[in-house]
Amino acid sequence: MLTVMSDTSQWGGGEPPLPPELNPRNGTSGAKRPRRTSGTATGAPAGPTLGSRNGNGNGQRKWSRKRKIRLTATVLVVGLLAVGGGSYAWASSKLNKTNVLADYAGRPPVGKGTNWLILGSDSRQGLSTTDQQRLHTGYDTGARTDSMMVLHIGSNGDTLMSIPRDSYVTIPAWTDSKGVQHHESRHKINAAFAMGDGPLLVKTVEYNTGIHIDHYAEIGFSGFVNVVDDLGGVDMCLDHAIVDKDSGANLKAGCQTLNGTQALAFVRERHQEATQDIARMQHQQQFLNALAHKATSMGTILNPFTLYPTLDSGLSMLQVDNNTGLTDLASMFLAMKDLKSGNGKTMTVPIADANYQTPADGVALKWNMSEAQQVFDAFKNDTKVPSFSN
């Protein structure tokens, strides 16, 4: 479950208000801009490979230009937040930080580039019973991992690697909040989050991949829906229609703009697909890239009626590690935008057996370690990531 850990005492224990000088809803006319809300999950119609630093001159020029664009955009985002005095402090105060990246004996050393663990949890925090019914989320309490990705930002291009939640891995020995010690065990990777929350999940990912995680970001259902709606929807092009009663998805083939409810249904749908969890992760990658593209577009950044409500919804529902700041988040979203533009790679950790029968956890996914290790080594050493097909 998402836990708000930012200091709000200076606002009397409540949420910090949007600075008056930057609140687009406090215009001179007094008119309040209505918030777009999600309806049903029915789709509505809407209207080069990255050059290596060590490659030829043309590749070098492309990469240098790309880095300048990313740096400029990051500075622009932070600069816009700094306008008006209290804006940057307001945005920073919305970040919910947690000590999720604790050091421990045997932790993988810091590698080259930057590695993010991005987690989508099925936390129902903030959702009313009516919202849970409308969004087809179910009524479970607590939180589980609904999606898990490792994003590598480096000099040889950015790579987003999904880790199936049913991956059968080793959960390292750990000590819970009551001081009880737990021995190393073999389970599906989502069990790590259920047992020990973010810290144990990070430790489990690092233990099984050897990749040092530099930053952590987690968002739940309610924040996901609100961000999409505040952006005015996100454009997606689907190669086939999707109808799934469990997720509530009812989307037509072709290009369309998804609102928050439709987007949530799209990223949660899996029963229509032959490969289920792997197909769902591909949907999640596809949508996350499109979301980042919309959120970092000039049309969003330069429009206060879109930018500030989006920041208000997104930052308040995002949980990050203690060392993550606004510039780090800007860099992450710009890397995701690059992936949407075709600069980089999206993939799933190589799978050897999608129907692996475990001793006690039912059917799980077994990694192809000979291929997976090559991917993990590329992440650690910031080298070109090899391509494999599942």
Structure description:
It is a single chain. By secondary structure, this protein is of the alpha+beta class. It has a single domain (51-381), classed as Aminopeptidase, CATH 3.40.630. It is 36% helix and 20% strand. It is built from eleven helices and 18 strands. It has helices at residues 57-82, 87-93, 129-134, 190-209, 221-230, 260-268, 277-295, 298-301, 304-316, 326-340, 369-381, and strands at residues 44-45, 96-98, 114-121, 145-153, 159-162, 168-171, 174-175, 181-182, 185-188, 215-219, 234-238, 242-244, 249-251, 254-258, 318-321, 345-348, 351-357, 363-367. The strands form six sheets. It has a seven-stranded mixed β-sheet with strand order 2-15-10-3-4-5-16, with helices on both faces. It has a three-stranded antiparallel β-sheet with strand order 1-14-11. Strands 6-9 form a two-stranded antiparallel ribbon. Strand 7 (174-175) and strand 8 (181-182) form a beta hairpin. Helix 1 (57-82) crosses helix 10 (326-340) and helix 7 packs across helix 10 (326-340). The longest helix is centred in the first third of the chain and has 26 residues, at 57-82. The two termini are 32 Å apart. The model is unreliable at 1-16 and 21-61 (pLDDT under 50). Residues 144-296 form the Cell envelope-related transcriptional attenuator domain. Belongs to the LytR/CpsA/Psr (LCP) family. Residues 1-10, 51-61 have a biased composition (Polar residues). InterPro entries: LytR/CpsA/Psr_CW_biosynth, LytR_CpsA_psr. The chain crosses the membrane at residues 71-91.
